Amino acid sequence: MGSIADYIADLKVRFNAAEGWDARMKLILALSEGLPAMDPARKCEETRFHGCQSQVWLDLGWNRIDEVVEVQADSDARVMRGLLAIAVGLYHRRRPQEIAAHPPDLLIEAGLVEAMAPNRANGVYRLLRHVHAYGSARATHDTAAGPPLRPDKAISA
Known about the structure:
By secondary structure, the chain is α+β, with helices and mostly antiparallel strands. It has six helices and four strands, in the order ααβββααααβ.
């Protein structure tokens, strides 16, 4: 797995190569195919992320052994699954310090926001900010001790 900076650079190339809104949407839909399905038992109110047009589930966790943040996400909408695939690609199995150093604002440079309707862009951006905040909190938390940081029940944007 490359760095977050490498991932963003790759997204920028791919989105810039996709000429027009239709081509960018096709790219997002293609990305949806690569998002692993979330365990149906984890699709519950505890992991529901409110503030998106479609239903979204977000499960953030801390892997104490590898000392990385783990991100699982899913949606009932294919376009949103593609956007969640980007979020997972950005932050899943990353060290908290790397997450803290790469806020979601960097995706604007990749041309991703231009490919979305404003309401969808706002929801995805809030979700990315939430994951980034979780990773940043982990970066300042003693990762070797204490209870794992978990998102609040019924995550809200």
